[in-house]
Structure formats: C-alpha cells, structure tokens
Write a structure and sequence with these properties.
43% of the residues lie in helices and 18% in strands. The protein is an alpha/beta fold. The protein has a single domain, classed as 3-Layer(aba) Sandwich (Rossmann fold). α1 packs across α13, α2 crosses α3 and α5 crosses α9. The longest helix has 15 residues. The protein is globular, with a radius of gyration of 17 Å.
Length: 285
C-alpha cells in the first residue's frame, strides 16, 4: 500500500518468538515503541507513526503469535509479554524508550513499568488494567461480555475461525465513534493477522491470562516514578477519573491523563493527529 512505503520491516528473534518490527524515521532519534491491542496488529499505528516519524524513531510490532510474528506466542500473560518487549528493546538498542500501548498493549505496558526501570516515559490507552480499579467493576459489566467468552478454552477458536472479518467488524462498529475510520482495507489486514488457528489462540490467550495478570499486578504494587500518560477516547465508555484514580492508588506517582477528542475505543485509528499531539506534548516534543 502506498501509505506504507515509508516503513522499514524486519524480523527479530526474541526467545522462541520471531517478532515482526515496522519502523519509520531516523534511527538516531528518540525511540517510541507502539504496542497494539485486540483484534488489531502493528498496522493500527501506521497513521500515528507517519506523523511521529517526523520527530522520533517510530517503531511498532506485531505481538507474539499474530500478524507476521511467529514462533512461540508466549503464555498470554502480560508479564511474559512485557519481558518479551523488554528483551526486544534491548536487542534493538533502544535507550530512553517511550513505550505506548493501546488496549491489550496498554496491559503490557503496566507490568513493564512495574518490572523495569529503563523507560523514559510510558503511555497507556483505552484499557483497564487487570487487578487495578476499576477492574472488578469492568469485568462485571455485561457490555464487556467478550472478556468471559474469550476466556473459554477452545470454543472461541471453533466459532470464530473462518468468520474473523465479520466477528471483528462487530467490535470496530460498536466500540468506535466513527466506524468508517477503520477502513475496509485495514479490517481485511486484521482478519488476515488472526487468520490461522495459532494466531486466533494467541489473541484469545491474552484474555485467558487475565486472572494471572490480576494476581501479578497485585504483587507488583509499589511506587513507580516513571512518567505515565493515561489516554482514553472522548467517546469511550467509562469515566477516565476512575481509571486514573486506580492507577494512582496502585503507586503511579507521576501520572497525567487526557481525552482524545472525538474518538471511541480505537483512538489511534479514529483520531491519529490528536493522539500523536497528546503523546508528543507529554514527551515535550
């Protein structure tokens, strides 16, 4: 696609995984690493990266097991995924890294923050953190039915295989303020990223690990001084104050927050300019 001509692609071996890495911008510039959520891939960050690469070294990956990342998909726990991301950053030589995660990607950023002290700053977007308020309130909400469904062993793969496009469309249409912002071409890309049985299982494993994630995060409670920005789409359900309050109570002492104007859940696709403007401002760019 023409919009992707500026991106460089490579595969990096990390443990038992082969991680697909997409990059843009000057490799000598400050590194910003973007982590996607479900049911998307690195491709969801393409518009933000196209803006960011004018100022920074913009990097995005396919999470282990989905898209063009192969090999060991990890056990689905966000702690193990954070360890994989940390090893990848070390292999790429990323110093003073800014780590940004949306949806499941944000769930990965949290244990990274709690486990490693090498980030310049971090951004968590559009997600509740397992075990951190308002986690219990969110999982009780029938509107979030898919958390429970995706956690059932084997059944989601059986029902979704061959229907990825239609199933994912439901979430894009319901959770975004402007469903048209997630283009048909992008939707095709995401269905392809989860086309195999192994990729579907990798994505659902992120949900199956939630109980373990909550326990891990509870043990990780302690003061974290790394600057953190929490972002949420203006049209996203829930009150941002509840999420910010939970993070503060968990020990995040340098925390700021913001709403992405006009966006629902898929902020980086619905409002890439506003998303990058908020991140860049947080980073002092």
């Amino acid at each position: 696609m023409a919009e992707e001509t500026q991106f460089r692609h490579r595969t990096v071996a990390v443990g038992g995984s082969s991680i697909h890495v997409a990059e843009a911008g000057d490799p000598a510039a400050p590194p910003f690493l973007f982590l996607h959520g479900w049911p998307e891939s690195w491709h969801s960050w393409r518009r933000v990266m196209a803006l960011a690469c004018r100022q920074v070294h913009a990097i995005a990956i396919d999470l282990p097991g989905v898209g063009q990342s192969g090999g060991d998909p990890t056990d689905g726990s966000k702690r193990q995924l954070a360890e994989t991301v940390h090893e990848l950053a070390a292999q790429l030589g990323l110093k003073q890294l800014t780590l940004i995660g949306q949806d499941v990607g944000g769930m990965i950023v949290y244990p990274y923050l709690c486990s490693f002290g090498d980030l310049a700053r971090a951004v968590i977007m559009d997600v509740v953190i397992p075990g951190v308020p308002p986690w219990e309130e969110v999982v009780r909400n029938p509107y979030i039915w898919h958390f429970a469904f995706h956690s059932v062993p084997r059944l989601p793969e059986l029902l979704v295989q061959g229907h990825q496009r239609e199933y994912f469309d439901f979430f894009y249409d319901v959770l975004s303020a402007d469903p048209a912002a997630i283009t048909p071409a992008a939707r095709d890309r995401y269905a392809e990223a989860y086309a195999s049985d192994a990729a579907l299982a990798a994505g659902f494993s992120w949900y199956r690990a939630f109980a373990r994630d909550a326990a891990d995060n509870a043990r990780a409670i302690g003061e974290v001084t790394t600057p953190l920005l929490y972002l949420r789409g203006e049209k996203e359900t829930g009150h941002i104050a509840d999420y910010v309050g939970g993070l503060r109570a968990a020990g995040l002492t340098s925390l700021s927050h913001g709403l992405v104007p006009g966006a629902g859940h898929f902020t980086q696709e619905e409002a890439p300019d506003a998303t990058w403007r908020l991140i860049a401002g947080f980073a002092g760019l």
